């Protein structure tokens, strides 16, 4: 698993007036027993106890031992109440053919993520959890729906490398601005499962209903989507006003963290330039504070970061390094979707700009 070192422990310590040193970044591979999931370096937190000698009126002296000397404390204690009162978690799930095994592994890992997230967040934080898919084509461009017969292949993490391939991809890209293609969870619309387009709960509530809903929804997303996966476009249009009616109520802005989590095993084929997509997300989080309120993570192909594919460019566009793991290492899903990811949400929640 590849993670950023988060100052979550540091954030909690500051909240209780315990000083923290600088956290350092490190990475470790999923399944590598020699690499810790979370790392950080804390230096110079506490000095040894100090003692002072005082002399009384009669000449008697006494020694008073003070408690440990603490430093690196902020000039003023941070507010006891964190800046965020809500967290929106958007899962962008690849629903092309061959994804069933990965969807099932994500569903199995999700309950631990919920437990860890609730443990790391303050009390009484509202949660919204929703799913959209990577599909942007079903009808349109004069074509019949043919998710298994798209005319463009991919090599490792690159796709659309020639003008001919780009032209072909364009024909299989139907954004919501061109009309609703009618597919559940397509074009950045939230996937409706058991009558709900997203699940709303609170950190004070019983998490069992959320776990049950998501584990069902993640696998129900299925494998009927286009084989030209467009997760970046999906994440962006899920926040866009174009889908405001379909996604009504899911996304909050002020004082709300947005976490976008990707599950995909192919390169991103999103058509528009990266800045078009990042602008949609930033605009949706403008009142909150923009990048400070946007987190990304994912289970993706190992070559995506190395080749700086568009998906990776999007994931690292918002300030904080993303947490990610190899989608093929299903045994490591719990680490990526569990404690590490939840701690990141908690850290961001504490440091979110207030108001």
Radius of gyration: 23 Å
Tell me the fraction of residues in β-strands, as a range: 15-25%
User: Can you write the helix and strand succession as a string?
Assistant: HEEEHEHEHHEHEHHEHH
Mean pLDDT across all amino acids = 78
Q: Helix/strand-derived class?
A: alpha/beta
- DSSP helical segment count: 10
Characterization of this structure:
There is one protein chain. The protein has 355 residues and is α/β, with parallel strands linked by helices. Helix content is 28%, strand content 17%. It contains 10 helices and 8 strands. It has helices at 8-15, 100-120, 163-171, 208-220, 231-239, 274-284, 303-306, 310-315, 333-337, 339-351; strands at 46-55, 61-70, 86-93, 126-133, 198-202, 256-263, 294-300, 323-326. The strands form 2 sheets. Strands 5-4-3-6-7-8 form a 6-stranded mixed β-sheet, sandwiched between helices. Strand 6 (256-263), helix 6 (274-284) and strand 7 form a beta-alpha-beta unit. Helix 2 (100-120) crosses helix 10 (339-351) and helix 5 (231-239) packs parallel to helix 6.
Structure in a nutshell:
The protein is of the alpha/beta class. It has helices at residues 8-15, 100-120, 163-171, 208-220, 231-239, 274-284, 303-306, 310-315, 333-337, 339-351, and strands spanning 46-55, 61-70, 86-93, 126-133, 198-202, 256-263, 294-300, 323-326.
Task: Offer a few descriptive terms.
355 residues, alpha/beta, six-stranded mixed beta sheet, two-stranded antiparallel sheet, 10 helices, globular
């Amino acid at each position: 698993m590849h993670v950023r070192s988060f100052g979550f422990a540091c954030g909690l310590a500051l909240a209780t007036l315990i000083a923290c040193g600088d956290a350092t970044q490190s990475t470790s591979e999923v399944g590598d027993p020699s690499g810790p999931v979370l790392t950080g370096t804390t230096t110079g937190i506490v000095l040894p106890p100090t003692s002072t000698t005082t002399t009384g009126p009669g000449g008697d002296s006494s020694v008073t031992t003070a408690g440990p000397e603490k430093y690196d404390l902020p000039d003023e204690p941070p507010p006891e109440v964190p800046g965020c009162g809500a967290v929106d978690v958007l899962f962008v799930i690849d629903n092309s053919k061959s994804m069933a095994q990965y969807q099932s592994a994500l569903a199995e890992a999700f309950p631990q993520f919920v437990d860890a997230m609730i443990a790391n967040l303050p009390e009484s934080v509202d949660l919204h959890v929703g799913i959209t898919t990577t599909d942007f084509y079903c009808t349109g461009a004069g074509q019949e729906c043919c998710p298994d017969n798209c005319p463009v292949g991919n090599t490792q993490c690159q796709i659309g490398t020639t003008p001919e391939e780009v032209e072909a991809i364009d024909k299989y890209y139907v954004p919501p601005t061109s009309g609703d293609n009618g597919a559940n969870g397509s074009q950045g619309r939230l996937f409706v499962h058991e009558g709900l387009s997203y699940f709303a709960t609170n950190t004070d509530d019983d998490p069992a209903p959320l776990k049950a809903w998501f584990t069902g929804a993640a696998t129900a997303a299925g494998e009927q989507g286009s084989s030209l996966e467009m997760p970046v476009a999906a994440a962006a249009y899920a926040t866009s006003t174009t889908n405001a009616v379909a996604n009504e109520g899911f996304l909050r802005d002020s004082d709300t963290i947005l976490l976008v989590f990707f599950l995909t095993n192919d390169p991103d084929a999103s058509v528009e330039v990266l800045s078009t997509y990042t602008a949609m997300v930033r605009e949706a989080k403008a009142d909150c504070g923009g990048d400070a309120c946007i987190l990304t993570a994912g289970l993706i192909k190992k070559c995506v970061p190395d080749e700086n594919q568009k998906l990776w460019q999007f994931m690292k566009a918002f300030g904080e390094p993303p947490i990610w793991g190899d989608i093929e290492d299903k045994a490591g899903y719990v680490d990526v979707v569990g404690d590490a990811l939840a701690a990141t949400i908690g850290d961001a929640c504490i440091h979110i700009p207030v108001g």
